[in-house]
Amino acid sequence: MSRRTGEQTRALLLRAGMQMLLERGVSAGVQHIRLQDVLRRTGLTTGAAYRLWADQSDYHRDLAVAMVRMRVIGSADVMRSTVEQLAASGASGEELVRGAALAHVRSANLDSEDPTDLLDAQSFRVALALRTTADTWPELTEASHQRHRESIDAFAVLYQEVIDAYGMRLRAGLTIEDFAEAMAALAEGYAIRALERLEHPTFTLSGEDGLPQGDWTLLGLTVRALVASFMVPREDADPDAPVRLPVWS
Known about the structure:
Number of helices: 10
Strand order of the largest sheet: 1-4
Shape: elongated
Number of strands: 4
Order of helices and strands: HHHHHHHHEHEEHE
Helix content: 55-70%
Mean pLDDT: 87
């Protein structure tokens, strides 16, 4: 059996550390992942690790960077699946906003029976917690910026497809990237609230005073208002089309 290369050993130890982070959750933090425990899990010796990292702090830095870069399923792909299901069911724009926001809230709270969904949500939560400490190491700052940029690019494509399908356009002076940045700030902010175990507010609304009707999350209402601020109907859109994003003046 051929011996592992240094790069293969490094990847193995980082994968084991990431698995431990996912098992323990965001409260662990990379500082609580002891290199000795990682070595014990992988069956490797101390010498194998210290040929790669000068000390445990160096390992923690690379573990944090690897965790921020990790993907199970891209968040935009998860949201795309939700949006496509809602659109295929003939959901109105208002129903789309409400349903997609509810899906995000449930994901942030790890409220799913699908193991893949749970793994992706846990990965997102751990990476988000690490990104809040991005100034710890320059490498972590760079990885956080890269993940943010990739996420904005992916969501910008998804949001553009949605507003095209629902007969909308962005208001003059605003771009789809601006909308994606605002949405990211909202989604990540509410996800941090979930990490703090703060209950997400929900409302049962009557449809009066300019508000929608039915059960809504606070995130859904906030996205609803954001859509109104950023978008208007396209001039060539069919005003009687059954699928339209809502607009409120």
